[in-house]
Design a protein that fits this description.
Layout lengths: L8 H15 L6 H8 L3 H7 L3 H27 L3 H14 L3 H11 L3 H23 L5 H17 L12 H13 L1
């Protein structure tokens, strides 16, 4: 008898991310995801106990990819703190997790447990920025201000629709990063 191929857990997570980004946690429906994947609900239950466990797995994967893996990638690329910050500035805007990040921020406004997870991830990201800016800024107040500005830029830039009369958005972002690194 031939073995049946299972839909990988990672495929469910990716579909879950897509649903979360498109419509928030209410859009993460097992039946809909199974139909999109062309599989039965049984495939879902092979990997996850229930919908709550799946939502928890989505949060875990977001945390892993959006913090741990991103920082590891930056650390592997260069030893220079300024270059690490520049690299973050190029990786974050192109990350497929940006819509997921924004959906989780919205979700956290209504769910205290998600808000706690978001706070944990934001603190990890801010701690990382503090460590990078701290390598070339001797003033702790300056480190904190630059870290907050850099993180706010990374988060808020995804929501801004403003035009820049004489420059493109990437040009303005490059100039903003240069100011932060000066």
């Amino acid at each position: 008898m031939a073995a049946t191929a299972r839909t990988p857990r990672s495929t469910w997570i990716e579909k879950g991310f897509n649903a979360l980004a498109a419509g928030g946690p209410d859009a993460v429906r097992i039946d809909v995801l199974a139909k999109e994947l062309g599989v039965t609900r049984g495939s879902f239950y092979w990997h996850f106990k229930d919908r709550d466990a799946f939502l928890e797995a989505l949060l875990d994967a977001w945390q892993q990819k959006g913090a741990d893996e991103l920082m590891a990638q930056v650390e592997a690329e260069t030893a220079d703190a300024r270059e690490k910050i520049r690299l973050l500035g190029t990786l974050i805007p192109t990350s497929p997790l940006i819509p997921v990040d924004l959906a989780i921020r919205d979700w956290a406004r209504r769910d205290p447990e998600v808000a706690q997870r978001l706070r944990h991830v934001d603190n990890r990201r801010m701690d990382y920025l503090r460590s990078l800016f701290g390598e070339f800024c001797p003033d702790p107040d300056d480190v904190e201000a630059r870290s907050l500005l850099a993180y706010s830029l990374a988060i808020a830039n995804q929501s801004l629709a403003a035009d820049h009369p004489t420059r493109t958005r990437p040009e303005v972002l490059t100039q903003a990063v240069q100011h932060l690194l000066a």
